[in-house]
Amino acid sequence: MKGAVLTRLNRARKAREAAIVVSDLVNGTQGLFLESDEIAQPDIAREAAARFRSGKSGIVNIEGREMFINAHIPPPRIVIIGAVHISQALAPIAKLAGFETAIIDPRTAFATSERFPGVNLQAEWPEDVLKSRPLDAYTAVAALTHDPKIDDYPLIAALEAGCFYIGALGSRKTHAKRVARLLEAGISQAQLTRIHAPIGLDIKAANPAEIAVAIMGDIIETFRNRGAYGDVS
After folding, report:
1. Closest Cα to residue 140, out of 66, 84, 89, 196?
2. What residues are paired with 31 via a beta bridge?
3. Which CATH number fits domain 77-225: 3.40.470.10, 3.40.50.150, 3.40.50.720, 2.30.30.100?
4. Over the chain (233 residues), what is each successive 10-residue block's mean pLDDT?
5. Do 85 and 77 meet the contact criterion of CB atoms below 8 Å apart?
6. How crowded is residue 198: how many other Cβ atoms within 10 Å of its Cβ?
7. pTM over 0.70
């Protein structure tokens, strides 16, 4: 990899930005594109969009030239707000699916290593935790406590950071009250439409484990479709 391209790639990795490196296998020229870039060449833009969503690298033929597209996608992560029963099922499912996971809950009676062995568990207020590790476009946020004092701040932070998935537990009535609070806090109606509420796919889930499966399915679907339907701001 050429020095200038490697320098830009390392910069993108440090900033948790997705990048692809396009290498012409005939003449050896290389180019690097970030997911946020506007790519002028339609064929390359189309291939780049697919690679950004899938995370897969491969050889393609563009205008009669063989090119290798190398995708570099930041490891996706899930920040779960609330050390609740659903979280106990969601954390191991997320790990199996390849998502780095953290659980945040200031309620020390719930946020214990006995209930969440081997999980990155932060028994602090979300606003304190997120100062040192801010959210980004490759993070999903699942707010599960039903407590506005705990859930609302990370929801607002997720909307402002452009997280690829933002979900909140609760009925439609509960969400209507949540929407009213967030509007009062200065969040726009357009931003609020990005919140998946009720959280998760509609699979008629009836217990915490099934709800966790529904949430994980929703997160994966949104991650793989990001950018295709305006999921990331």
Report:
1. 196
2. 22
3. 3.40.50.720
4. 88 92 92 91 90 91 91 95 98 96 97 96 97 94 97 97 96 95 96 96 96 98 74 37
5. no
6. 16
7. yes
Bridge partner list, 61: 66
Task: List the alpha helices (DSSP H) in the chain.
Answer: 3-14, 42-54, 85-96, 126-132, 148-161, 172-184, 189-192, 208-225
Angle 94-189-178 from CA coordinates, rounded to 5°: 60
Q: Which residue has the tokens 């701001």?
A: 233
Contact 33, 46 (CB under 8 A): no
CATH 3.40.50.720 domain span(s) along the chain: 77-225
Nearest partner of 138 among 73, 82, 90, judged by Cα: 73
Structure tokens at 40: 């002028």
CA distance 156 to 27: 48
User: Minimal CA–CA distance to 147: which of 172, 125, 121?
Assistant: 125
What local confidence, expressed as pLDDT, does residue 231 receive? 39
